[in-house]
Structures are given as structure tokens and as C-alpha cells.
Amino acid sequence: MTVDCQAERTTMALNKRFLRKLHRSLVPIMVAPLLITVLSGTLFQLAALSGRGIDFLWLLNLHKGNLGFMNLERIYPFLNGLGLLLLIVSGAVMWWTTRPKKRQST
Questions:
Q1: Is the dihedral of CA 5, 9, 10, 11 positive or negative?
Q2: pLDDT for 81-104, tens place per residue?
Q3: Does the pTM of the predicted model rise above 0.70?
Q4: How far apart are CA 58 and CA 65, in angstroms?
């Protein structure tokens, strides 16, 4: 094995480790906002379908990022989307790189 090949393997191992750390650190941060978005949007839609949407406008505000004590309506969707995109990409790359390689018949 050449030095270049060993260096490439070391770099790939470091990249995999970095990607796992990034994914692992993003998951706890992104779980709450994603759950809030999904639950508030679904519950508001159910309320609107039952004809009581006006009574549950607070769910729509929560869905948009108005958390009461902090109004994040301008950046909440952007951060939510960016975080979800990072989780999807890092998860897909980790999955792709850990798939078993097909053996070539000799």
C-alpha cells in the first residue's frame, strides 16, 4: 500500500468521524423544532377541518415560529429547513459510505 493510499484512507476516516459528530450534534438540536412544526401544523389542520380553526390560531403562530417569549417568525422556517437538509444529507452520506461493497468475482 502506498503512502498516498494510506493518507487518503486516513482522510476518509476523519471525514466520516466528522460527519458522524456533526449529525449526532444536530439531531438533539433539531428534534424539538421539527416536532413543534409537524405537530402544530397537523393539529391546526385538524382544527380547521373541523370548523374550529379560529379557536386554534395560536397553533398556527407556534407553527410559524412565534414561541410567545420569542418571535422567530423571520428565521424559524429557514433554520428549520437548513437543519433538516443538513440532517438528511449527513445521514444519507453516512448510509452510503457504510454500505457493504459488492465483491468482484475472480
A1: positive
A2: 998 998 898 888 888 887 776 766
A3: no
A4: 11
Alpha helices in the chain (DSSP H): 3-49, 57-64, 76-98
Report the pLDDT averaged over residues 15-25. 83
Q: Are 90 and 30 in contact (CB under 8 A)?
A: no
| Pair 31, 80: CB distance under 8 Å | no
Phi and psi at residue 27, to the nearest 5°: -55, -55
Are residues 65 and 76 in contact, defined by beta-carbon separation less than 8 angstroms?
yes
Q: What is the arithmetic mean of pLDDT over 51-70? A: 91
The residue among 86, 61, 89, 90 whose CA lies nearest residue 76 is 61
